[in-house]
Amino acid sequence: MTAADTRQVFVEGISFWAPRLPGWEVAEAVLAGNAVPPAAALRRPSPETLPPAERRRAPDSVTLALEVAARACSAAALDPAGLPSVFATTHADLVITDYLCETLVKTPLHTSPTKFHNSVHNAAAGYWCITSGCHAPYTTVSVFGYSYAAGLLEAFMQVASDGNPVLYVAFDIEACGPLLPVAVSRGLLGVGLVLAPNRSAQTVARLSWSIRPGKRDEMTRAEPGNAGLVEGNAMSPCLPLFERLARGGGPATLVLGPCSLLDVVVQDARTPPP
Prior knowledge:
CATH superfamily: Thiolase/Chalcone synthase
Number of domains: 1
Strand content: 15-25%
C-alpha cells in the first residue's frame, strides 16, 4: 500500500460472540494465543436491549446481531441512538427462509406473520434501530462469501465520506434445509466494530486500508486452531482481522470479490502514524 492509496480509521469499540467465544474479553485472549478456549456453554446470546418476552421470540439472527451491536457501542462508550450503522450477513436467517418455503408448499394458510417479518434481510438492523432508539441511517450488505469484507469497506467509506463514527455489525447463523449444500454455515458467529475518523480516549487500534486487484489465494487465513472454533460459519472470513486486533497489530488481506482485495493493517493506537 502506498501513502497516496491508503486511508485510515480508528477502532473505538470491539465485540465478538460465538458459542465457545462468548465475548471479546474471552475471544481476545484465545485469538492472541494466550488462553485455551472454553467449552461451549451458551446456545445463543441474550441481548439486554430486547425485553424478555421479545428476547424469547426473536430468532437467533436478531439476538446475535443485537448482542454484538450493543457490546461494541458499550466498549466505545458511545450512545447507539446517534450512530449510523452497517450490518452485513451472508445468508440472513436461513432457518426462517426454510420454514417459509416449506410452509408455503405444504400449508400456505398457516404461514406465521411473525416469522414472515423476520425473514427480510434487514430484520436485525430494524430491530436494532427500534430497541436502541436510533434514528441514524443504517445499511445492510450481502455479497455471499465476500460479505464481511464488503460490509467493512462500506463502513470505511461512510466514515471517510461523512466524518462520523459508524457501527459495523456482521453475523451469520446455522443454515438448514435444501439450501444447505450451497449456503453452508454452521453455528453462530457475530462481530462488531465502532469505527471513527479521529483518535479519541477510547481508541484501541488504528486501521490503515486500501483496495487493490488480486485473487482469493492472496487472502490472509486464520490460524487453524482459531478457525476450528467457528469452522463452517459463513462469517468466518472476519477471523484474520480479529486475530490482528487481539495481537495488537499486523496486516490482513480480505477478499472483496473474484478479482478485488481489501488490505488492512492493524496498528496499536499508541503507535505513531507512519
